[in-house]
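#structure-requests
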Amino acid sequence: MAVISWGYSGPLYQENWARLASLGGDRYNVGPEANPFGVAAISGSRRISIGAGTALASGVLCELATMEVIDLPAIDAGTSRFYLAVLRRTWGESPVSTLELIYASAATNVTVPTAPPASFPETFTSTPGTVDDQPLAWVWYNGSDNTVKVFKISTPSAEQRVAVVESRLDEVEADTGWITLSLHPGTSVVDGLTPQIRRKNGSTSIRGRLVQTGATSFTVPSGFRPGTELRLAAVTGSSGSGVAVFVIDSTGVGFTSAGATINVNFSWIADA
């Protein structure tokens, strides 16, 4: 069976471009503006506002130059409704992007809800190249006093996502420098080589020499620990005359056989 492909040389029609673009990276995006396509209730009225800005989905970039105000449909007193506010992209002979309210549910309870519906309405459409609804917010209101409550659907901007990644990279790449480990009772320093620990570029290193006469030697701090238990080969004695097993368990506790002088020179990826 032949594989059908788009993206090589030749024409790439809007429908196939939309399908292609929707498969790469985040499904929906908003721009770097202060509140791009952000939905807010307008106090004292049955209306909501949509903030100016840009939004990207399915290869189509949309821009709202100024804030848009939308009137919510009138409903009977003593009833309430949920709508989903979306930015709808429609392809075809006359492509267009519009702001829409998708009806979700109605109730006779006018108590302000604490959470939105758990799923999108059945009429919510996500078919890039045909119709694609970019969800903006859930909107609830009642017909008695026109109270409006908005439940925002978080869509981080590209800048916000980059900031999160950079923050995590900074955390991973940070150099803690050498930190002296607190030894457990019964464990002591040998030859003045105090056990120390360091995390740099996501890797943990330990250096030093100790003798353990109790059950355990020390505890690796949180953020420096391996993701699973390690059993490490450690050189024994001040002159490196033998080998012993040094264990660092899943809680970060390190221990070896009692009475032996151990050179704790180890490294691992910091996963916990």
